[in-house]
Protein: NAD(P)-dependent oxidoreductase
Organism: Paraconexibacter antarcticus
Amino acid sequence: MKVLVAGATGAIGRPLVPLLQDAGHDVAALVRSAARADEVRGRGVEPHVCDVFDAASVRDAVAVAAPDVLVHQLTALPALLDVRRYEEQLRPTNRLRAEATPHLMAAAQAAGVRRVVCQSISFLTAPEGPPVQDEDARVYLDAPKAFAAAVAATHAMEQCVLHTDGVEGVVLRYGFFYGPGTAYATDGGTAGEIRARRFPIVGAGGGISSFVHIDDAAAATVLALDGGAPGVYNVCDDEPAPMREWLPAMAAALGARKPLRVPAIIPRLLVGPHVVHFATTLRGNSNARFKRTFGWTPAHPTWRTAFPEVLTG
Ligand SMILES: NC(=O)c1ccc[n+]([C@@H]2O[C@H](COP(=O)([O-])OP(=O)(O)OC[C@H]3O[C@@H](n4cnc5c(N)ncnc54)[C@H](OP(=O)(O)O)[C@@H]3O)[C@@H](O)[C@H]2O)c1
C-alpha cells in the first residue's frame, strides 16, 4: 500500500521507513524543506514539501501523495529535555499535536485516506489505581503545571485522530523510547546525565516507567497500518518497572557510577512537582491490547536484558 509518513526524519521515522519499504510498501513523506526532500529522496522515499501549520498546504500535499495510510510521527523535542525548562521545551510539540493534527486529519479525510496512525505517549495517565494501567485509565489533564499543557495537547490530538468521520484513527501510545537515535542511547542526552550523576533516584523511586526499544516501536507501527480496530493502543515492552530498578540498571549498562538518591522535597522545590511525579507516582502501561489485536511480539520484551545489549560504557 502507499504510506505517507509525517516525521520520516525523526527518531522513529528513521527506522520506520526501511521497515515499511521491506514490507513492500510504497513510502512517501511530508517534509518541511527542500533539503529534507533531498534527504528522504536519497532513502527511496517520495517527498512532498508542505507547512504543517498551513491547512491548505497540507491538504494539497496529501491530495497529491494520495496515500492509503498516513502515519503521523511529528514531534519537535530536544535531544535532552531540561526538566527545569520542561514546559517551554514541550511547547513546539504541543503546537504540532494540537494545531497540525487537525490539518493532517482534514487533509486525510478530503483525500480519502483509509487510516491515520498517530504517535502519542503512554505516560499521560493519572497517578491513581493499579500500578500498571490499560488504555482506559484517566488522562492526567490535571497534571502539575509544567506537564499539563503537554497532556492537554496530546489528548486533543488523540481525540481529533479518533473522531474524524470516514478515517480510521489508530493512536499508538509509545512508552519511553530507548535505543539508537533516542535520548536513552549510549550517546543520548539522558545517558550523559546519568554518567554525570545528574539523574538521581527521587524519594523511594516508585514511579513506574514503560519503555520500548525504538525498533520495536517502528515494527509495531508497521503492524498498525492494517487490521485491528481503530482506537488507542499502548506500545510498550512487557516489563513496566519502578525508577529504583531501571535507573541503576541503566547506569550499570552505561558503565556509570550508581545514581545518587535525593528526598522528593529537593527536586519538588528546586525543579517542580512534574519531576517528582515521573519519579515517584507515574503508572506503568500494559501492552496487552496491542499484542492481542495486532499479534505484536517485541524483539526486546524487557529493558532488563536489552539495556546491557543496547547501551555500552
Ligand atoms: N515516546 C518517547 O519517548 C519519545 C517520543 C518522541 C520523541 N522522543 C525523543 O525526543 C528526541 C527528539 O525526537 P526526534 O528525533 O523524533 O526529533 P524531533 O525533532 O522531535 O522531530 C521528529 C520529526 O518531526 C519533524 N518536525 C518537527 N517539527 C516540525 C515542523 N514544525 N514541521 C514539520 N515537521 C516537523 C522533524 O522534521 P525535521 O527533520 O525537518 O526536523 C522530524 O521528522 C529523541 O531523543 C527521541 O527519543 C521520545
Observations:
- The first strand starts at residue 2 and ends at 6.
